[in-house]
Amino acid sequence: MSTQPLPLDGITVVAVEQAVAAPFATRQLADLGARVIKVERPDGGDFARGYDTAARGLASHFVWCNRGKESVAIDLKDPRGLAVVRRLVADADVFVQNLAQGAAARLGLDAAALCAAHPRLVAVDISGYGAEGPYAHKRAYDMLVQCEAGLVSVTGTPGQPVKAGIPAADIAAGMYAFSGVLAALLRRATTGRGGQVEISMLDSLAEWMGHPLHHGMHGGETPARTGLAHAVIAPYDAYRTADGEQVLLSVQNDREWRRLAEQVLKQPELADDPVFATNTARTANRERTDEVVGQALARLTGAEALAGLDTAGIACARLNTVADVAAHPQLAARDRWREVASPVGALRTLLPPITLPGGAETPMGAVPALGDHTDATLRALGMTDEQTAALRRDGVIVGTALSGGPDRS
């Protein structure tokens, strides 16, 4: 049986992007086979390159969001550089940008202007708060949007709200941009026209706040911050075991509570005790519920607790560290790890979550150095080596005459 091609083979994406939201979206497109040309500033490039040096000298955010792309370093403030990007967009299927509000429009690179000029183009504007409204020009970084969207208000302990440990607003916007591009490309396949895609970080994260929003808006109180516990289900928390591990368990219904009481807690009478028999009762008596469960698990090692819970059919998990995830037996058993090339050598990384059995494997291309593909890209546009050298001399581009073409290996 022949292998099916990747779904986005033949699709070209031009991205004027920085930080996380847009780069995360376009990396998903690259993972599905698209050619992604990442346009960066010559003076340092995507500022996420400078966030840290944790990935053997490279920034961890940049490694995560930018493998498999071609880096073209061009000064968009110079008319010659902007003209190059316009030529790239004219031949592209998708354009994505997440510049500061208004910056793309000043350059003529906003979705409305580009779609008017190129009817088949799918053009994406990603912003913090949207193009209109009182917050349109407000600076929008991930933690700030987490606060504005209310995520921080429902995360943490009763005494301390905390932000999510990952850039949730950026990821939400990136994933909606990714799915928006796929939807627009599907529509183009039937209508012949691309169109605009508008994504805001606030809209995206507010959608993810659906449970607390609906819980609070429609007669209920806003769910309380409960640490690792669930606001409306009990027991649903982490409990320390005899060897110091923390084991989480979740009882979703009263049948599961009966199994937990009989098989793990070894107190079958608790199944019918009115203090514990229903989830409503267990939640109202959360401290007593947690005490009963905690005392039982404290007599077991982590391995014993997990084995007993699994046997009883109770959902459970170990509270893993980042190092534990890197060594997770399930990821290893499913062969989810790969290596990608980078300017500092091979780096270990995960395959993307979308698996397409029978199709070509994700290319997992290299993490590019700044301007790695500038010269090859300009050459493909028909520019001579002399023209490219002049742009380099004037600081309009960064690249070397030795730059190769796209590395899709």
Q: What are the main properties of this structure?
A:
15% strand; alpha/beta; 409 residues; seven-stranded mixed sheet; disordered C terminus; three-stranded antiparallel sheet
What does this structure look like?
It is a single chain. With 409 residues, this protein is α/β, with parallel strands linked by helices. The protein is 38% helix and 15% strand. The chain contains 17 helices and 14 strands.
Spatial extent as radius of gyration: 26 Å
End-to-end C-alpha gap: 23 Å
Overall pLDDT score: 94
Poorly predicted runs are 402-409
Q: What class do helices, strands and sheet pairing give?
A: alpha/beta
* Tertiary shape: elongated
Please state how the strands of the largest beta sheet are arranged side by side: 8-5-4-1-2-3-14
Biggest sheet, open or closed, and with what strands and sense? 7 strands, mixed
Task: Please bin the fraction of helical residues.
Answer: 25-40%
Question: Beta fraction of the residues?
Answer: 5-15%
Question: With helices defined by DSSP (H or I, 4 residues minimum), what is the helix count?
Answer: 17
Number of DSSP strand runs? 14
Question: What is the strand and helix layout of this fold?
Answer:
Blueprint: E1 12-16, H1 21-31, E2 35-40, H2 60-66, E3 69-74, H3 79-90, E4 94-97, H4 103-107, H5 111-117, E5 122-127, H6 142-148, E6 156-157, E7 160-161, H7 168-191, E8 195-200, H8 201-208, H9 210-217, E9 236-240, E10 246-250, H10 254-264, H11 279-284, H12 286-297, H13 302-312, E11 315-318, H14 322-326, H15 329-333, E12 337-340, E13 347-350, H16 374-380, H17 385-393, E14 397-398
Parallel strand pairs: 1-2, 1-4, 2-3, 4-5, 5-8
Antiparallel strand pairs: 3-14, 6-7, 9-10, 10-11, 12-13
Helix pairs in contact: 1-2, 1-7, 7-8, 10-13
